[in-house]
Design brief:
The longest helix is centred in the N-terminal third of the chain and has 12 residues, at 81-92. With 290 residues, this protein is α+β, with helices and mostly antiparallel strands. 21% of the residues lie in helices and 39% in strands. It is globular. Strands 1-4-3-2-6-7-8-5 form an eight-stranded mixed β-barrel. An eight-stranded mixed β-sheet has the order 10-11-12-9-13-16-15-14, with helices on both faces. The protein has two domains: 13-173, 2,3-Dihydroxybiphenyl 1,2-Dioxygenase, domain 1; 181-289, 2,3-Dihydroxybiphenyl 1,2-Dioxygenase, domain 1. It is built from seven helices and 16 strands. This is VOC family protein. It comes from Alloyangia sp. H15. Keywords: Plasmid.
């Protein structure tokens, strides 16, 4: 029988989103055309539990680092279990398949979720080398991930950054478009109440009515669950008909109108909606003014 998570006041942040893409350089070109600064490509590795030698996890990435949160764009690197899982999701569709939430203690979060009856993978420790202005540095993370298939939207994980300065380098957090923060991940849901209840349970935060859908506010950032028809109208196409899916990103920037000449852009009050380009898969950017 599912149990409620223990009550906690520990902060939880929307840390990053994850796009699964075919070509990192094509994704880079689309992002740079929107005025984002994009990090160099980096392959993710996991230390061998016995020897400590690094081995490929199965994915590599480029990132858009924001002052608050970041956007990750993943590609396949090896046929590991995670790499093969990535390929299966990518074969289904390119686009958003991952939501990551930052917590104070990944191990404690893993134990709480498991005790609540949520199936979990073991906590893992990942590393990747990142370029710095003086050489390279190792970015290290501990990650607690829900078991594959637990959430139909894709990969949901909780993590701790052990070396945040390696990622949030000032040279990567400034963007020509002025982007400041990852404010929300948007979800398309055939049954918004069911989707909201699942996420509220694993996030330990209540789902509040939000238009015809729901919003789960975190200590920083949020998850917005939209009825499927509303999400389809926003995106301009059905992303994953009949299935709950991550379909959009809400970001803040000083003046969304700077992107109003991009193909498919349209105003939503003071905000701007813009379809993801072909290299990023089906989905929508929503840019809000600061």
């Amino acid at each position: 029988m599912p149990q409620d998570l223990p009550a906690t006041t520990d902060p939880i942040h929307l840390d990053h989103s994850g796009h699964f893409v075919v070509d990192a350089e094509a994704a880079r070109a689309e992002l740079e055309a929107l005025g984002f600064t994009v990090t160099p490509y980096s392959a993710q590795v996991q230390p061998d539990p016995v020897t400590g030698a690094p081995s490929l996890t199965g994915t590599g990435n480029i990132c858009v680092m924001l002052p608050e949160g970041y956007l990750e764009f993943l590609v396949h690197t090896a046929d590991t279990p995670i790499g093969l899982e990535f390929l299966a999701a990518l074969e289904h569709r390119a686009g958003l398949h991952l939501a990551a939430f930052a917590v104070a203690d990944a191990g404690a979060r893993h134990a709480d979720l498991q005790a609540a009856g949520i199936e979990m993978r073991p906590v893992v420790h990942f590393e990747r080398e990142v370029a710095t202005e003086t050489g390279t540095e190792t970015a290290a993370f501990s990650v607690a991930r829900l078991a594959a298939g637990t959430m139909p939207e894709g990969r949901v994980q909780f993590l701790v950054h052990h070396t945040p300065a390696a990622l949030w380098q000032p040279r990567w957090t400034g963007h020509a478009n002025g982007a400041r923060a990852l404010k929300a991940i948007l979800v398309s849901a055939p049954d918004p109440a069911e989707t909201a209840a699942r996420f509220a349970r694993c996030l330990g935060r209540p789902a509040q009515a939000f238009g015809a859908g729901f919003r789960i506010a975190l200590d920083r950032g949020a998850l917005e669950i939209l009825p499927e028809a509303e999400a389809e109208a926003l995106v301009g196409a059905a992303v994953d008909p009949g299935r709950s899916a991550f379909v959009g990103l809400r970001l803040s920037m000083p003046d969304p109108a700077l992107l109003s000449d991009r193909p498919g852009a349209r105003r939503l009050g003071a905000s701007l909606a813009l379809p993801f380009g072909a290299a990023l898969g089906a989905g929508i950017w929503v840019f809000d003014p600061l």
